[in-house]
TrEMBL record:
The protein's name: Uncharacterized protein
Leader sequence residues: 1-26
Residues passing through the membrane, by range: 36-57, 69-89, 95-113, 125-148, 154-175, 187-205
UniProtKB keywords: Membrane, Signal, Transmembrane, Transmembrane helix
Amino acid sequence: MGPVRSKTIAAAAVIAAAAVIAGALAARDGLDAGSGMGLYPMAAAVAALIAVFAYGWPRLLKIPDPWHITWLLLLAGWGATLAATLSALPSPMQWMPICLGLGVVAVFASQLVRGTGATRRLESTLGALLGLLATTFASGWVAVLNFAQLGANALVVPIGAAAVALATLAVMAILSKRLPGSTRMGSAAMALAPLLASGTLVYFTQRLLLQ
């Protein structure tokens, strides 16, 4: 992987973490002030990151006809994020498995539509399924802010996002010579994948700590 791609991955990881932190702080200020903005700043930040990932992921994997995968990842991720934004405690993540399940069904349906003679069907299916995990799990970054009303530590999201970004940079630095070359958007998707997917991990970790 050339230096341009390494810089792209590093920049994407830092910018994504900054976007999550900024969204969390704006949402927390809105929740504290009762301004009506609520979780929307965080939801907007997560939705933007999902859009970048959904575009770059199938191109990173060099999947034929990448646009149908992009739309599936985008719709499933946005659906889960919107549901987490509108659903309050005790179960702000209750719709995420449904969005993931519908996305899985849509992936297999799209491969059937492509026909038996389509190229790289297995790679397309596996790549789309992994992408769905990242985009739907990202909704956890929004849902975890619901715990603010239970007295959860306000720093959980900034610390979690920063930790994931640093871990991503460390892993990418170690594996830099083994990573495949890709476009800038594909490299950005590579950096975004762990940050998006860790949203649900942060959510359930915080939930366990509050019990």
